[in-house]
């Protein structure tokens, strides 16, 4: 979409299970013409290999094979590159999503520990007052997990746990993944058509 060509978002993918969520989010944003600044933790690369079967020896090549050819562009930032553009508040992006977000990354953000590019970029969102969305994927949750999420929620961070719905009649895993990505985009006020909303069914009363 041409109206999105100058829009930019940061997307982080951590080592929590559910790499497919982050990949779907990146492809959706790129398909909408939104530029993506992508950060993947070392554990995130491991999970991509284990869950998605990605060959991660040549990381740049595998990203090109999955994310080239969309109307939006992406920029990959190694997680150790603490001097990357997105580490500075003067570099303008609309917001950041970490999907999925591990409890370790969530804890680092909640406690102001900016020891890599992922957590530093999230800290930038907080200090600049820009949207930050975290998609935690862990179960069960203990008190420390919940306390860290509460702390961030009070700062305005949007917490969207990986809890897909079933009211829209999903027929596949991809439908469930798309629903969650759609909920993230809703919270960022980005228009999409990833799932059927409640009340949007074609059935008429009495049918």
TrEMBL record:
Residues the record lists as binding FMN: 15-17, 41, 102-105, 137
Keyword Transferase: yes
UniProt KW keywords: Flavoprotein, FMN, Prenyltransferase, Transferase
Gene3D superfamilies: Flavin prenyltransferase-like (3.40.50.1950)
Catalytic activity: dimethylallyl phosphate + FMNH2 = prenylated FMNH2 + phosphate
A Pfam family per the record: Flavoprotein
Ranges where the Flavoprotein domain occurs: 9-188
Highest taxon above the source species: Bacteria
InterPro entries named in the record: Flavin_trans-like (IPR036551), Flavoprotein (IPR003382), UbiX-like (IPR004507)
Entry EC number(s): 2.5.1.129
Family membership: Belongs to the UbiX/PAD1 family.
Entries under PANTHER family matching the protein: FLAVIN PRENYLTRANSFERASE (PTHR43374), FLAVIN PRENYLTRANSFERASE PAD1, MITOCHONDRIAL (PTHR43374:SF1)
Biological role stated in the UniProt entry: Flavin prenyltransferase that catalyzes the synthesis of the prenylated FMN cofactor (prenyl-FMN) for 4-hydroxy-3-polyprenylbenzoic acid decarboxylase UbiD. The prenyltransferase is metal-independent and links a dimethylallyl moiety from dimethylallyl monophosphate (DMAP) to the flavin N5 and C6 atoms of FMN.
Protein name: Flavin prenyltransferase UbiX
């Amino acid at each position: 979409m041409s109206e999105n060509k100058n829009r930019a978002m940061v997307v982080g993918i951590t080592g929590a299970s559910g790499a497919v969520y982050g990949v779907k989010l990146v492809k959706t944003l790129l398909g909408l013409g939104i530029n993506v600044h992508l950060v993947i933790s070392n554990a995130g690369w491991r999970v991509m290999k284990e869950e998605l079967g990605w060959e991660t020896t040549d990381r740049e090549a595998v990203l090109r094979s999955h994310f080239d050819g969309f109307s939006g562009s992406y920029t990959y930032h190694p997680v150790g590159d603490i001097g990357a553009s997105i580490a500075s508040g003067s570099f303008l992006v609309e917001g950041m999503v970490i999907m999925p977000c591990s409890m370790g990354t969530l804890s680092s953000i909640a406690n102001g520990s900016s020891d890599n590019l992922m957590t530093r970029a999230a800290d930038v969102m907080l200090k600049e007052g820009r949207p930050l969305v975290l998609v935690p994927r862990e179960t069960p949750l203990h008190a420390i997990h919940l306390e860290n999420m509460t702390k961030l929620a009070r700062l305005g961070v949007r917490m969207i746990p990986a809890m897909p719905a079933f009211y829209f009649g999903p027929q596949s895993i991809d439908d469930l993944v798309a629903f969650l990505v759609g909920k993230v985009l809703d919270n960022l006020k980005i228009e999409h058509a990833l799932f059927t909303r409640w009340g949007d069914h074609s059935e008429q009363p009495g049918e």
